[in-house]
Amino acid sequence: MCRKKRHENYQLPAFLISILFVLAIQIVGIGCGKSTEPKNNPSGSLTNSSGCISFLSTPKASLVPPCCTGLSYEYDSEDGTLSLTHFGAGFNCCTNPSADITFNDSLILIDENESGDYCFCLCLLNIDYEFENITSGVYTIRFIEIYATDEDIPLELTFDLTSDPTGNISIERNHYPWDE
Questions:
Q1: Is 127 helix (H, G, I), strand (E, B) or coil?
Q2: What confidence tens digit (pLDDT) does each residue in 145-167 have?
Q3: 33 within a domain of the structure (yes/no)
Q4: pTM of the model
Q5: Could you please report the per-residue DSSP string of 50-72?
Q6: Cys-Cys link to 147, which of 90, 97, 112, 130 (CB 3.0-4.6 A)?
Q7: C-beta separation of 61 from 53 below 8 A
């Protein structure tokens, strides 16, 4: 009669126990790694519109003359907010301004729109935007302006929030509604 040796009966369970032990160590190791909690995604919105500006009475208007459009920004690194004003933004006099804002890595794209009843005039507005969850680094802000033509220089600015937490740019426009 053939007898099995006692230690052969324990080889399979010992093998399974060692595999489970290795898996447990790997799971614990993964759990002790860096946090995988998602970071808050950047977001932004149009927060204020000046209405048609008068270049004689609006303090902010003096930064950009009526022949120009421009932007000014200010970054607060402590709370991760970026405040931006689009000066001299061309809109219909009777519509409500709005914007679609998208984030693509370091590009912030602001596609300005308008809605409501149109009338037969254009005017310049100052539009304020607020962005949240912005980390320090190099960014490009690019506007898609409703009344800018293909020949116009795009309103775009690349800046480093680490070294330049404030800044501005202005671009000349030589057609209505900027150059009357």
A1: strand
A2: 999 999 999 999 999 999 999 99
A3: no
A4: 0.74
A5: --S--TTT-GGGGGS-TTEEEEE
A6: 90
A7: yes
